[in-house]
Each structure stands twice: as C-alpha cells, then as structure tokens.
Amino acid sequence: MKKYILAVDQSTQGTKGMLFDQIGDLVARADLPHAQLVNEKGWVSHDPEEIYRNTLGVCRNVIAKAGIRPEEIAAFGISNQRETSLAWSRATGRPVCPAIVWQCARAAEICRRHEEAGEAEMIRQKTGLPLSPYFPASKLQWIMENVPEAAQLAGRGELAVGTVDSWLVWNLTGGRCHRTDYSNASRTQLFNIDTLTWDPELLKTFGIPQSAMPEVVMSDSVFGMTDLGGLLPAPVPIAGVLGDSHAALFGQNCRKKGEIKATYGTGSSVMMHTGQTRYDSADGLATSLAWGMHGKVEYVLEGNLNYTGASITWLKDQVGLIASAKETEQLSREANPEDRAYFVPAFTGLGAPYWDPDATGLLTGITRTTGRKEIVKACVESIAYQITDLIAIMRRETGDPIPVLHVDGGPTANAYLMQFQADIADTRVQIPALQELSGMGAAYTAGISSGLYPEDTIFDHIHTTGYESGMDASTRQKKYDGWKEAVQRTLFHM
Known about the structure:
By secondary structure, the protein is α+β, with helices and mostly antiparallel strands. The chain has a domain at 4-243: ATPase, nucleotide binding domain (Nucleotidyltransferase, domain 5), CATH 3.30.420.40. It has helices spanning 48-66, 108-116, 120-127, 136-146, 148-155, 164-172, 182-185, 200-206, 244-251, 309-319, 327-334, 372-398, 415-425, 437-449, 473-491, and strands at 4-10, 14-20, 26-33, 37-38, 44-46, 73-80, 85-89, 99-100, 159-163, 179-181, 191-192, 197-198, 215-217, 225-226, 236-243, 260-264, 268-275, 286-293, 296-305, 342-344, 362-364, 404-408, 428-432, 464-467. It has a seven-stranded mixed beta sheet, with helices on both faces. Strands 3-2-1-6-15-14 form a six-stranded mixed beta sheet, sandwiched between helices. A hairpin with a 5-residue loop joins strand 4 and strand 5. Helix 4 (136-146) packs across helix 5 (148-155), helix 9 crosses helix 14 and helix 10 (309-319) packs antiparallel against helix 12 (372-398). The longest helix has 27 residues, at 372-398. It is globular and about 65 Å long. The N and C termini lie far apart (64 Å).
C-alpha cells in the first residue's frame, strides 16, 4: 500500500524535500542550498538547472533518510518561490538566462515606462496587483528585450516562460507538461483574475507571446506524472502545486474567509483569505487567488515584504554583528529597551504597502548609547513593524478585527520577535508545532487530491502555541509612530 506523500518546497535560499506519512505527519526532511547570484548592479538571480538538480537531490536524500521504499510514495506536491521568473527553450529545455529572482528590481525602468504610458491602473484592475518590478510580467519583458535568444525562440514559437513551479513540472515530466496553478498564475501580473485567463491585452503590453505561457489548471489537479528522474520505479502524479505563501495558508488551515497568516522567510507574505469576495485595496495591498480547488477559485488580500528574515542574514554575512541567527533573540532582550533606533530594510526598494523600488535602507534614531545589541534589536523589530503595516491595512479595508495571526517560517523560533509581533500588532500570534507550512500545504493538497488524506480531518492533529499581546496602547502607538516616521524618511530618500 502506498502511504507517503513526497513534497518539495523550492524557496529563495534552497530546496527542501519533505516526506509525510498516511496521517499527515512529517517523517523526514532533507535540504540543499543553491547559489544566490548577485552582481555589481544588485541584480539577484538563480541558476534554474541547479534548482532542478537540487529538487531531485532532496527527493533522493529524504527517501534515503526516512528508510522507505520509493514504491511507497503515492503522490508528489510542489510549493515554490512565486514571482521568480524563467524562460527556456521548448526544444532543448535549456534556460535562456538565469532566473530573475522576485527580489530583483532590474525591471524598474520598464515599469516606469508603463506608468508613464498610463497603463498602471488597467494592469491593477485586471490582475489585482500594483505595477511593480516585483512581479514576473516586467521581469519577462526585460528578458524579451535583453536576451536575444528569447526573442528568437519566441519568433519560432519555441519559447516557454513561467515561474519556478512551471519549470519544475516541465522538467519532472520530461518536457511533456507546461502547466501552472491558479495561485502562481495570479502572481504573474499577466493573468486576469476575473476572467481567469492569460489576458491578451496584458500579454501585448508586456510583449510576451501567448504561445510561451503555461496552461493554468486547478491547484489540486494532476499536473503530470513523474518518476523523479528515474528515482521511482513507476511514475506518480504531481497532484498538488501552490505558490509557497498560498501553500502556507492552506497548511495553516486558513480555509475560511477572514483567516490570516504571515510567512516569515527571506521576505514575508501576509495573506488573508477573502473567500469569493475580491477586495480591491486602496492602500497598496495585492489581490490574488488563494488557489483553485474542487473546480472553483477563492481570493486573498496580500502584502509582500522584500526583506524580513534576510535582514538577519545581512547582519550575519555583510555586517558581521552576529555569528548566527539564533543570537538575535538574546541580544534583543539584552538591548536597552528605551533605545530609539529603527532599521528600514529597503535594500532593493520597499514592497507593500509602499511600492517604492528606489528606496534604500536606513538606520535612524541612533544615539551615543546605541550599540551592537540595539542595532540587532532594531533589525529584529523591523520584521514585526513591516508585518503590522499590512495587518493594519487589512483591518481597515475588510473590517475584520484579526484577533489571531497564524504564523510560520524560521524566524518564528525567535520568542522575542513573536512577543513583539503580538504586542505591536495587538493580536494573538499562533504558531503550529510543524513549521514547514509551505511544504505541508503542498503535501496535504497532493494527499487530498490523490485520495490518501481525508480533507475534513487531516488538519485535526496539528498542535499550536501562542503569544498574547501585553503592551499598553500608548507604548504601542509611540513605538509604531516612530517606525512610520523612519519609513517616511526612507521614502523621501533622505
């Protein structure tokens, strides 16, 4: 009897392979990092072929680590870094250039051209997304304009483009299937979230041929069959594909309207399930599709942050103030609580709700007594402040009080950060015992789709812990006002 679901969470820093048993418990996990390619212009890229090799590698490693037989795997699921954009040859399967990572703002000038042409509102109305180099549409246009092979292949109808999920599905199925799901499609800025199709006007605006686009299918579809490069004795279905933030929303069991989660990673996503209702934000949030399941789609409101956990990586790798991320909790506790330093991590501009690609990072409010501990504390707290910016807008625009924030990701292990998040956002922060929510969401989708998991009860065994808000209102307001002032300084490029 086949009784395991294998899932891959392909994220910004690396690839995780996860094996879940027949009751939905995580049995084993294997990780492989991939290179972060940053050039002198600050452009951020990944090697698509390295990502595929690592995908096969973590699958092989996790099966060996768990000591199971490959033939016991029932289905395969994928969660992926979403806006990272790729283009490759349909004939050879080779990428025409490195993948352009979601963080990369190299397409900012292209977005300015569309803004000056008066196209921004049309784009937002159709896609629910504010015009930004964050999203794939302008990244893919950059490839079309700057990589001659892409234009040549497009002219012959031999170009394929997509996000990381499409790249993996293509390779895992031997080039037989070029597909994406509704969650990933809705993040490309080329997909009309009302008509649920690739929009001809948007494709023309960004210069992307229709023939290059993947087929869009339900998130719980069979995307194709794979033997994982010969690892499995017989092919199994790729039965669940979701963008990582959407997969985490599903893994958090936020399947009802009004439920909200924050994923803390390199960057962060704050996502609220809005059911059948499409909210159009007036304050910089994006409207996307949660997923397509059981033949219907549902919507979300979302804000994306470029640098949250990555700020801690910067402290370690570029500044040398810490040797590991684990140090930040104790250093933050030991810092002077009255210190007024704020850190705004706009390394490559600011994402939601400000959407300023020209903003640069800022450490402000320092005094003669500000030292290493206070700077570390400011970086840690910047994560919570950015999340709170988005929660405040969601409260205002939906009227939901948001009494509970479901959280996941590596930084949630930092108890100082989690308590500060509860305090500054004035909400209960709830953390599941299993932190790999993106991989879990993809695995549960594949397990439900393939009939191994009962949808009504598979989430019942998940345990959580929580943090309650304990900060008084005046202190909270004073601290948050200081953050908003720091952000304004960044926006005015002072």
